[in-house]
Amino acid sequence: MTFDATASGRTIRVDVRGGDGRYTVSLDGRPIEVDHVATGRHFASLLVGGKSHDLGVEKRPRGYAVALPGGALTVDLAEAARGLSMPARPTGGPARLTAPMPGRVVRVLEAPGAEVAAGQGLVVIEAMKMENELKSPRAGRLQEMAVREGQAVEAGALLAVVG
Questions:
Q1: Is the same domain home to 98 and 76?
Q2: Contact, 153 vs 123, CB < 8 A?
Q3: Which phi and psi angles does 81 have, rounded to 5°?
Q4: Which parts of the chain are beta strand (E)?
Q5: What is the pTM assigned to this prediction?
Q6: Can you give the CATH number for the domain in which 129 is found?
Q7: How far apart are CA 41 and CA 159, in angstroms?
Q8: How many other β-carbons are positioned within 10 Å of the β-carbon of residue 158?
Q9: What does the pLDDT look like over 45-73, one tens digit per residue?
Q10: Which residues constitute the domain of residue 122?
Q11: CATH number at residue 43
């Protein structure tokens, strides 16, 4: 998953790969190995470069509030840069929406047979304590919803088909 994150007036490109608490996080192209363990509803422990960091995280409308031992900061995530919606296909055939990362389906927003607009939300997946709304890659009829709420999905798993 790649997105732009802005904190304290600075924007960086963030790419996150991995799963099950072990991630490679690239910050403006510099990779860092991160181990993540949830320690409470809004709390986590990160192991970065052999050092443990405890933090609190709270979802906000445009990103997250992060509490660290030395203070707090707000991290804004640019919606257009999250890379969570599939680009529109140039052909007239069905478009497949797939999971960009491993996670858990928390909400199914549309049922098969529904008419959907390009960019309309179809599924919400939770990954790394973040909820990500995945959007229709094109306008059309939702032919198939391949997942259900509560289901775990792997990166690349088929979520929906829009025709």
A1: no
A2: no
A3: -100, 0
A4: 2-7, 10-19, 22-27, 30-40, 43-48, 51-60, 63-68, 71-77, 95-98, 103-108, 115-116, 121-127, 130-135, 140-145, 152-153, 158-162
A5: 0.48
A6: 2.40.50.100
A7: 27
A8: 14
A9: 999 888 998 999 888 878 888 888 878 88
A10: 85-162
A11: 3.30.700.30
